[in-house]
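re: ur msg from earlier - yeah i can do the LQXTBERG complex, just paste it... oh wait u already did. ok heres what im feeding in:
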Amino acid sequence: MTAQLNPRGDVAVLVPAAGAGVRLGPGAPKALRPLAGEPLLVHAVRRVAAAPSVHTIVVAAPATEVEAVRAMLAPVAPVTVVPGGAERQASVAAALAAVPAGPEIVLVHDAARALTPPGLVESVAAAVRDGHDAVIPVLPVVDTVKEVDAAERVLGTVDRSALRAVQTPQGFRRSVLLAAHRSAGDALTDDAGLVEKQGIAVTCVPGSELALKITRPFDLSLAEHLLSTGA
Ligand SMILES: Nc1ccn([C@@H]2O[C@H](COP(=O)(O)OP(=O)(O)OP(=O)(O)O)[C@@H](O)[C@H]2O)c(=O)n1
Ligand SMILES: C[C@](O)(CO)[C@H](O)COP(=O)(O)O
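and the outut:
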């Protein structure tokens, strides 16, 4: 049976957490590495579970760690844990298959974005509820962006006013995400990218700097600092 959080909620959140974390360096799978003494995944799930609209959370864990992840998350929130896949897309598909009947809004949220505030979960879900098929949180690109060739010679300066850095949670009408995964071709790291390939409009909402993706060692240090200063 699938664990439920708020039976009156209309949102299922899929948390892909099966990645290795190669860019973070050698060690345990990234979602299980400690941040201020607790695994990244615990931080991420605790914040998702604090969003009032959330009915169900499904975590895709590293295949060898499913039981350990169940035990780790049991005191945090009622969560369903399934084995993830070799690519993020396969992990999301496995979690999507475990969503029970009920929630018609499905969010996909990286475990690696461990400090994402519950308010961002709510604002993405609200935009889907308002009628958007697919919603992504974004931030403006703050650096000047150059296009370069293979020899790192600058070809030109890109107009960054039309560029956005994309975060998670990404929100979808359930049927839209299901159809996108059913007809998915080459693995993409981004669910909105799958939906775009179906010709479906994707809408942006403001993201949060706290939703940074912990990818490299610097990001982990930054997250430690943010937590120690009250994030
Ligand atoms: N096979 C995979 C690969 C990634 N993810 C998850 O997708 C999220 C975003 O991926 P990323 O941060 O790029 O993580 P990794 O793939 O682990 O990073 P790296 O490329 O450095 O190994 C993470 O929460 C990660 O655990 C997953 O569930 N299954
Ligand atoms: C969905 C995503 O977080 C978009 O930023 C994605 O998982 C990024 O993965 P990447 O491998 O770092 O591009």
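cool cool. The chain has seven helices and twelve strands. ping me if u need the other ligands too
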